[in-house]
Amino acid sequence: MSLNKIILAILIILFIILGVGISFSLLEKKKIEKQLLQEIEISKKMRDEIDKLQMENKKLEEENEKLRSDIVSYLSFNDKLKDENERLKKEIEKFQKEIKDSKKKIKSLENLREKRETGERKKEKEDKKEAYSKIDELKKKIKYLEEKLKKEKALYCYNLGVAYTKAKLYKEAMEAYKKSLEINKENPEASYNLGLLYEKFKKDFLKAIHYYRKYLELKPNADDKEIVEDKIHSLLSKQLQSQLQSLE
After folding, report:
1. In 3D, which of 227, 229, 198, 226 has the Cα closest to residue 211?
2. Cα-to-chain-centroid distance, residue 146
3. pTM for the complete prediction?
4. Whole-angstrom Cα distance, residue 161 to residue 158?
5. For 15-74, how does the pLDDT look when each residue is reduced to its tens digit (9 = 90+)?
6. CA neighbor of 67 nearest in space, from 197, 168, 151
């Protein structure tokens, strides 16, 4: 074999070896680039998930803070109602004492009526009239204050029920709403909230229906009338199904 042919063969072999090495390097490079892209994608997903969790935690903290603020606000308002109730009680006691004193005065005037002269009797009559008039006025004031006191007591219990509900103390909330209705039966919101608690918390559909109907009786033109009626129909259906299942 000539030298030229030998050199040519050697060159061909070198080109083949170099070509394989270059192809291998390109494959390795593409593989590394692919792994880097995957790692970058995974890292990006992890950052997005961490950001999402941080936002959810922040939202939960804000909701908890608002809940604490609402409870403090309701309890503070109820403290003010307590003070007002004490003031009204004292006024009622004062008026009752004045009535008692006025009655004593009338009795005293009646005992002295026969002993006085005509002019004195006239004065006695005017005094009695004035005393009776004052009694009537005081009775009206007492009635007004007693009604106001009753409504404020009912409102106090209702607000306590709302605060307990927000704190997820449902049993205490139900007791507070019932107390509010004992004091003032004309409270549609308390009836509605009781219906809601019996439906969602106690799963007592019959009592829930009772309080929803009471709500509609007290508030026949309520904006959510159709929604509440649908609730009643739905609960009646659930109650019927439950009774049928118990018979099977």
Report:
1. 198
2. 28
3. 0.57
4. 5
5. 666 555 555 466 676 777 777 677 677 767 777 777 777 788 788 778 767 777 766 676
6. 168
